[in-house]
Specification:
Helix content: 10-25%
Structural class: alpha+beta
Strand order of the largest sheet: 5-8-9-10-11-12-13-14-15-16-17-18-19-20
Number of domains: 2
CATH superfamily of the largest domain: monomeric porin ompg
Shape: elongated
CATH architecture of the largest domain: Beta Barrel
Radius of gyration: 29 Å
Order of helices and strands: HEHEEEHHHHHHHEEEEEEEEEEEEEEEE
CATH topology of the largest domain: Porin
């Protein structure tokens, strides 16, 4: 934990305070003798004939006294009062918050994270709690998690300007200081179309002026199966100075089916400089290399470059633009070799206090050796996801795109191929359930291609059950 992180945490704590009060029942609450001593000055004790005295206070009085002791940094004196609040179900959230606040202020960062996380699992819209959770992650050295929760808290329109400004500055510092990231997942995936093929039994082929039906064998038709999946994503950011850094990113996706025919492995590496051009914006230029193995053999090599632009806007919004140009070398057929040019623009907007919505426009130009496989693809993607009650993360997204090819494949048709492509995804995962740090989730994916070529008509359902861990 750096000294700068401690200073940022102290600044946020001093700005937001510790108040956790809300409407509470006015039921009288008996206290143990230790706790009673702490509120005796504010109440009148009653004594029986044996000389034993007792103090009875309302939950509101007890909560107020606990908060005042915490404001005065008398944490040990406040603890029995906070424990006594456990007898009031209506104040469960306030008790958890104060217990978490005491934990973070007395150095029990893991305990604080657990208590704040438990509140947000049931009430994800609690901005005050989210700020403390972000501060706890910051003190534990988990900058990515801290930045995520600061970003969600930043969207609360009721935040005072001073706090909102501090959050923006903190997120800027965190992005600038982040050194590395890494995530890993594994699972299994039932799939209705593991080879992405058509369900048609026959297709028409041109034989001179005559069309003849061609019977497709099993390998050319849609097949189902269950695959084992794994993947990782990581990156390193090495600062050269306050404005310039070197980015190194690596990603991989692996899926293994029975046999080798549909096994699919993709590995991509990118490296290059990132330049901060303003406090909340940056540009990057990376060399990119990719290899794909399909069906147990090397299928494709790609190499090129990509340019990126990122701009953080007010209240946690963000825009990004990426341009990509790469050379493809197919190991299956030289007809698939050539150039790929891509572009996409994305806008992210915070919805409420726990959800992120996004919209993207994308386009890709494939300039391959065979005109029949060269195409122009363009479309839009929409999505929303975030935190829900009961400790769940969930989201949905969908995209639709159009593909127009440069020339016909004369074996199948005299018309240029034209496709409509659709994709939809829904996911849900648990923040509460963990096994060795891995959290479970379920993804459902649906993809469809409607084409004027029967051979390329396709639909696919896939469910991915996986465990993921983020470092």
């Amino acid at each position: 934990m750096s000294r700068q992180h401690i200073l940022i945490s102290a600044t946020i704590a001093s700005l937001v305070g510790v108040a956790a009060s809300s409407a509470a029942a006015e039921t009288a609450l008996p206290l143990a003798s230790g706790a009673a001593a702490d509120v005796a000055a504010a109440t009148v004790p009653t004594c029986d004939d044996s000389g034993q005295c007792h103090v009875r206070v309302t939950p509101t009085q007890l909560l107020a006294k606990a908060e005042s002791l915490i404001h005065a940094k008398q944490y040990q004196a406040a603890l029995p009062l906070v424990d006594a609040l456990g007898q009031v179900p209506e104040l469960r959230m306030q008790r958890q918050f104060l217990a978490g606040y005491i934990a973070i202020e007395t150095g029990d960062i893991k305990g604080a994270i657990k208590k704040f996380r438990s509140i947000l699992d049931e009430n994800p819209g609690q901005t005050r709690v989210r700020l403390e959770l972000a501060r706890a992650y910051l003190l534990s050295g988990k900058e990515a998690s801290a930045d995520y929760h600061f970003r969600l808290a930043q969207n609360d329109e009721n935040l005072p300007d001073e706090i909102a400004k501090t959050i923006r500055n903190t997120r800027s510092i965190l992005r600038d200081q982040r050194i590395w990231r890494f995530s890993f997942d594994f699972g299994f995936a039932p799939d209705t179309n593991i080879n992405g093929a058509t369900d048609a039994e026959t297709i028409d082929i041109n034989f001179g002026p005559i069309k003849l039906p061609l019977q497709l064998d099993e390998n050319a038709r849609k097949r189902s199966g269950v695959g084992q999946t794994a993947g990782f994503s990581g990156g390193i950011r090495v600062k050269a100075n306050d404005r310039l850094a070197l980015l190194i990113d690596a990603d991989s996706k692996i899926i293994n089916y029975k046999g080798e025919e549909a096994d699919d492995i993709v590995v991509q590496v990118a490296a290059g400089p990132e330049l901060r051009i303003a406090r909340y914006s940056s540009v990057s230029l990376q060399a990119v290399g990719l290899q794909r193995w399909y069906g147990g053999r090397l299928a494709t090599r790609e190499y090129g470059a990509r340019f990126g632009y990122q701009q953080a806007l007010s209240e946690g919004q963000r825009v990004g633009v990426e341009l990509d140009a790469r050379r493809t070398e197919s190991q299956i057929s030289n007809a698939y070799s050539g150039w790929q040019l891509g572009a996409n623009a994305t806008y992210e907007h915070l919805v409420g206090k726990s959800m992120i919505a996004s919209a993207s426009l994308f386009a890709r130009r494939d300039l391959l050796n065979a005109d029949g496989f060269s195409s122009f693809n363009y479309g839009v993607n929409l999505g929303i996801g975030g935190e829900l009650p009961f400790g769940l993360n969930a989201g949905v997204s969908a995209s639709v795109s159009r593909s127009e090819f440069d020339a016909p494949l004369l074996l199948y048709s005299t018309e240029n191929r034209q496709d409509w492509r659709g994709f939809a995804r829904a996911y849900i995962g648990s923040r509460k359930m963990k096994f060795l740090g891995f959290s479970p989730s379920i993804d459902y994916n649906y993809s469809r291609v409607d084409s004027n070529y029967d051979l390329y008509e396709m639909s696919r359902h896939r469910v991915n059950f996986k465990f993921a861990r983020y470092f």
